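Quick review question:
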């Protein structure tokens, strides 16, 4: 079991993420590559004091890139789509 602050890396601010947040009360965050759904749910509830309904996790593989004559690959990432319970609200940008 990891520390809860090692599970969540950062929120992802994309157009799709903003649409999910506004229409379906879902948050898009980047998580640690070895995190699971239970750890993400526990970390969100303890850090942000919100109630989580469910968590979906997506593994995004790294893209292949060419650097001159060499072929390389970017590192992949793991994203979590966190659905908050009805009536819950969390806004990352409000405090800025």
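Suggested answer, residue by residue:
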């Amino acid at each position: 079991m990891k520390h809860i602050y090692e599970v969540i890396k950062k929120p992802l601010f994309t157009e799709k993420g903003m649409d999910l947040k506004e229409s379906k009360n879902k948050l898009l965050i980047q998580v640690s590559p070895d995190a699971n759904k239970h750890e993400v749910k526990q970390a969100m509830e303890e850090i942000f004091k919100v109630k989580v309904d469910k968590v979906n996790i997506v593994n995004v593989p790294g893209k292949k890139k060419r650097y001159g004559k060499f072929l390389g690959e970017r590192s992949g990432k793991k994203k979590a789509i966190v659905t908050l319970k009805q009536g819950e609200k969390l806004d990352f940008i409000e405090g800025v």
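Why it works: Residues 82 and 94 are 19 Å apart (CA to CA). The helical segments are 4-7, 15-24, 37-48.
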